[in-house]
Amino acid sequence: MNITRRTFTAALSLTGFAAALGLSPWQLVSQANAQTAAEINQAGELGDMAMGSKDAPVTIIEYASMTCPHCASFTKDVFPQIKTNYIDTGKVRFIFREFPLDQVALAASALARCVAKDDAPKYFAIIDILFKQQNDLASDALGTINRVGKQAGFSEQMIKDCVQNDPKIQKGILDVREHAYSKLKVNSTPFFFVNGTVVKGDISFDAFEKLIKPLLKS
């Protein structure tokens, strides 16, 4: 294997995140200090990865880390219902933004970006695979990223060039995380904005539905 741990040496300042991980109560909350719509809707240099109609009356923005178990649980158990009931019917636009909490999550997100380029369906397919193999990421990050990348048609050298040698990709991901942390007060994952209302943590489909339905009537 050519990729070494240097693959994951992009500068990740995790100061302040350790306290947030696992310590913030998972709960549905209203936005105490409302960020501006412009701040919430600001996409990073890499652009947003989204699905659903641009004209949908409801927009859900998720900030997630590829190594976050609650994020994987949302993707597996809740997101498919949201997609079927609301995204595919034109009622919700869903935006996924990377918020890596460690170096492995950064590398996995970089791989998804490199493989997909501007192809959102391909991007969502890759992150779905990575979330499903989250246990493998934890036990063998290098091997898992190599395997997923090769399944997507990348050579080992292409994977290495992506996750180690492409500063634009890593900087783009980290800039989005910094904006979310400093401007939007994102301090845990998964973290959602539903038309500007904050939703934090491992939330059920029913909880999302209670937020979405009134917005469709307004």
UniProtKB/TrEMBL annotation:
* Keywords attached to this entry: Isomerase, Signal
Its name, as the record gives it, is: Protein-disulfide isomerase
GO terms (molecular function) for this protein are:
isomerase activity
Q: Which SUPFAM superfamilies does the record cross-reference, listed alphabetically?
A: Thioredoxin-like
Domain of life of the source: Bacteria
Protein family? Belongs to the thioredoxin family. DsbA subfamily.
**Domain Thioredoxin: residue ranges:** 26-217
Signal peptide interval: 1-34
* Entries under PANTHER family matching the protein: GLUTATHIONE S-TRANSFERASE KAPPA (PTHR13887), THIOREDOXIN-LIKE REDUCTASE RV2466C (PTHR13887:SF56)
Instruction: State the function annotated in the UniProt record.
Output: May be required for disulfide bond formation in some proteins.
